[in-house]
Amino acid sequence: PYFLGLRSPKSSNISVCLFTDFDSETNEEQAPEPTMTRLKSTVLDMWSMNSKSNGALAWSASTDFKCNETFHEEFYSSSDFSCNATLIEKNFETDMNLNFHNLFMIGLRVILLKVAGFNLLMTLQLWSR
């Protein structure tokens, strides 16, 4: 399972915890404290990877909110890595090889349709004589 703790940029407190990729038999009980909101486990369906994953989400505004206490599991901090949407957007690039293959396949389909249409027209012209 993976634990992700998301922090508010204005404070150092963890405000959101995401618990993913756990077994479907894992039973996550309700929130242990009243100041915390926690969703029951859900199934995330990733069409692009043709896979499903279990996930649970919890968030709180309290100062002593910790992911490992929330889900009763070992939590590995990722404070060395920043999760900034603008940095991810700058580094995101499409696969040029995949784009080339897609364009190549579209070109082959267009040529195949033109050849089939030309053959059909020539066959009809020969039959009409």
From TrEMBL:
Record field: transmembrane: 106-127
Naturally occurring in which organism (per UniProt): Neovison vison
Domain T-cell receptor alpha chain constant intervals: 5-79
UniProt name for this protein: T-cell receptor alpha chain constant domain-containing protein
Pfam families given in the database record: DUF1968
Domain of life: Eukaryota
Keywords: Membrane, Transmembrane, Transmembrane helix
